[in-house]
Amino acid sequence: MAGMNQSAVRRVNTSVILRALAVSAGPTTLTSLSERTTLSRRTIELILDSLLTAGWVAELDRVPARGCAGRPARRYELRAEHALLAAVQITTENVSAVVADVRGRIVGRAHRPLRSYPDPQSSLDDAATLVREALEDAGGSPERLRAGALASGGAIDDDGVVRRLVHTTRWEGVDLPAELARRIRVPWFADNDTNLGALGERWRGVAGDHDNVVWAMLGNRAGLGILIRGAVHRGLDGAAGEIIEAVPMRTDSVENRPVAWLTSPEPDRRAVALERVEAARAGEASALAEVDEFVAHIATILTTLSWTVAPSLIVLGGGLEDAADVLLPRVREALRAARTPAVELRSTALGRDAALVGAVKLALDRMDTELFGPLVPSL
Amino acid sequence: MAGMNQSAVRRVNTSVILRALAVSAGPTTLTSLSERTTLSRRTIELILDSLLTAGWVAELDRVPARGCAGRPARRYELRAEHALLAAVQITTENVSAVVADVRGRIVGRAHRPLRSYPDPQSSLDDAATLVREALEDAGGSPERLRAGALASGGAIDDDGVVRRLVHTTRWEGVDLPAELARRIRVPWFADNDTNLGALGERWRGVAGDHDNVVWAMLGNRAGLGILIRGAVHRGLDGAAGEIIEAVPMRTDSVENRPVAWLTSPEPDRRAVALERVEAARAGEASALAEVDEFVAHIATILTTLSWTVAPSLIVLGGGLEDAADVLLPRVREALRAARTPAVELRSTALGRDAALVGAVKLALDRMDTELFGPLVPSL
DNA sequence: TGGATTTCGCGGGAAAGCAGCGTTATCGCT
DNA sequence: AGCGATAACGCTGCTTTCCCGCGAAATCCA
User: Fold this and answer.
1) What CA–CA distance (Å, rounded) separates A316 from A336?
2) Which sign does the torsion angle of CA B132, B198, B191, A229 carry?
3) What's the predicted TM-score (pTM) here?
């Protein structure tokens, strides 16, 4: 229940202007910023001054605007490379890292198989190494790195602590941000990979206009990423969306049919699944039956979601996108038959990068908060 | 993406001070307000001045503070009766209205059976009449009424329009706020009764500290009210929580056993249900079996919720509270057996008034926004 | 070449909050 | 009853921040 003062106003307005610069494609003029932010020209002038000296913004040459009269406007541009963000994803098989600028453009990458998944410490060592490699790949000096975020499986709570993970207890209680900050000295954050998938999809993928989004990976592995009012919803102990924990998987269940291996991290299994999908495309009866069964399974889960979370968009990802042509129409039909609300169903636009893109966004948002304070007076 | 200016600061701070006055039990001093809001004494002085002249705040006599030295402080108090809020609830059987002050104290009531539920227009006429009666009961002049809110069953979207209602289509598309504003000329708002139950429970009930709450009515009638980050979550077309729409109810299903009539709006059926509960308390085998079956049904739904919405608290209401001693321990046990996250389970503290209390809170929040503007710059 | 258009650059002013200090009223102790 | 300690009052002056508006500057177009 904290009040506001003028410096809070300045912080908010600075952040607003930075965001306005970030969303605009090219250079921007004072007038355009003024219109979009409802702030006066003078105010923007002053704030841009401090952003210039801080290095966040560059002033470009003045160029006469072709085709319209008037004095040429000063043109400003976000120096996207002024700050770099790191994102790492750890799966059971691999660890991959990207380094991105504040616009979300990925400027460096690194990828390798994990030495030993069950062991948190060595995995986190690998993660840190990968971040350094990605930073080198980006050609960026380490001191430009401002923040990082980790995407991992399992239930991760609001503080980034692993609360639960299928098939192993060795990660439980690991404080991911703290562990990573020990290895690479910037603020770190962590979240579930499906949650970050949803976040990424809203930032740079297919979920742009939607405030309530579910990013769904359903199959052999299963998890939901949930955005409510545009923000990740973790729930108690990060359990929101961890449906794989809900039911112990039976060997005879749908999730163990080959087609459900679409979501598997193992290439061999994925290949088998894709063969089944191809067979279904070709009209082979047994493959079609298997797909139908799988679709029914997916539709059951999504129907439940439609009457509880009721997102306006569901994004299929985690491998399912490779069978989008087969799955999407069938699942849509099943949802319509179940008379659910008119939820939109799409395939991921980011593919395997979804969680990494979301992790970049997480790091970016948190960096913003650290620099400018919370935009909202916390009541 | 709107910037902030000083008048926005003043609006925010005025609202912050009003809220601080509202939550404090007795009269409050400048110093105490200053500490709680982190605003300077001077600022609070000035804002209280305008609130005094506007009638929102009263200054009380100075009384020496017993037991501690120092000049007696000026004491201010929220004039709770300065504004009145109306709340109406329409069920299939009844319509009831309350009038409350800004503290949420209910100062007037009215209640009567509904003439004809399927007919929206006559039902809304009844609702308007009841509000006038409740206002009379409160002894308040109509011009002190500032806003009103309606609680109704069914899927109600963000604009207050009924999108879906079991067993009838006659309410579909009815713009509840507009219809009520035609009859009683204040701003009106509408929401689902279970959503408002959750909101009420967080404001004046058992859910005070919890940000993610599910208010659950499960049985013959069924619906979930969902709070995420403290705010009502409606979802697409208001479908969030409308689980009764998910599955067509079968005559042989659990929801049609007598014990499930706990949630029925019909007194006769409720009486039958309570008899069954009493029999179970007495240890009668068939009643116990029925209760166990009902508990399993409830636990199934709540388990699903624990892995999707993952609230930190689930409140049982809508009639279930009358069997709390029987249901709560059994459902808790079932959830524990299912290894769900450690969600808390409680019985409603507001009982049948939950939705009405929540409606008062809804009207209050919206009135606040109308008076002081949104607290957050909308990005 | 000159009018129209658009932005620049800056001075003045208003709104809001903050810091600080002497004043005032009360308590508790002698 | 008197006196120091205490805590709030009431005010002046100051800082920060934003807004308004006007003359100047730079460009386009006829």
Assistant:
1) 17
2) positive
3) 0.92
